[in-house]
Amino acid sequence: MSNKTLSLDDRLYEYLLSVSLREPDILAQLRQETAKHPRAMMQIAPDQGQFMVLLLRLMNAKTVLEVGVFTGYSSLCMALALPPDGKIVACDISDEYTTIARRYWNLAGVAHKVDLRIAPALETLDQLLAAGQANTFDFAFIDADKDNYRHYYDRALQLVRPGGLIAIDNVLWGGQVTDAHAPDDSTQAIRAFNAALRDDDRVTLSLLPISDGLTLALKRE
Ligand code: CA
Prior knowledge:
By secondary structure, this protein is α/β, with parallel strands linked by helices. It has one domain (10-219): Vaccinia Virus protein VP39 (Rossmann fold). The chain is 42% helix and 20% strand. The protein has 8 helices and 7 strands, in the order H-H-H-E-H-E-H-E-H-E-H-E-H-E-E. It has helices at 10-20, 25-35, 46-59, 73-81, 95-107, 121-130, 149-159, 185-198, and strands at 63-67, 87-92, 114-118, 137-142, 160-169, 203-208, 214-219. It has a 7-stranded mixed sheet with strand order 3-2-1-4-5-7-6, sandwiched between helices. Helix 5 links the parallel strand 2 and strand 3 (114-118). The longest helix has 14 residues, at 46-59. The radius of gyration is 17 Å and the shape is globular. The model has no long low-confidence stretch (mean pLDDT 97). Bound molecules: calcium ion. Residues 42, 44, 143, 169-170 line the site of calcium ion.
């Protein structure tokens, strides 16, 4: 026994899912369809989606910002959890991926909760700020190109309300973050981002080793 986080082998992870995952059929269908996609690993894990739903319910969240939609698994999880007047502003640059997402939002009857913006996310976030939407979002989920993480985070921190939460995905990056000499830009961007967040006293911080690493940053009141 140890007080360090367990590394999950397949058997233990399957067990975890078997006793905790409550995935609605529509999400399971989307996950099966996405599994055939060449970039399927860009989808969040189902237990992570369920955890994010718990966070939304804990906060009574109504307004969500999502940076990086892909085929829509995370946005569908969140849209299903939001109240009828809840809203997700969902940012992505891909018509192709989000066509799948939109089909499932429609099938699940939650399309009216999702405001999809097809544009570079920084442009959309800056438009929201220019439109006076600072301090209005309850929750933000950042899961897009890693080079821009610090820019997405800076905008998201302005856009969420005091007491609002930002969740940032892939912060352990398959374990590559331990390599200070990793040659790729994404690894270095995540390393720099993680190091900067450690010292960011505007937020209360926790890095969870769920899935590929999920940082939670709660904007201080
Ligand atoms: Ca991700």
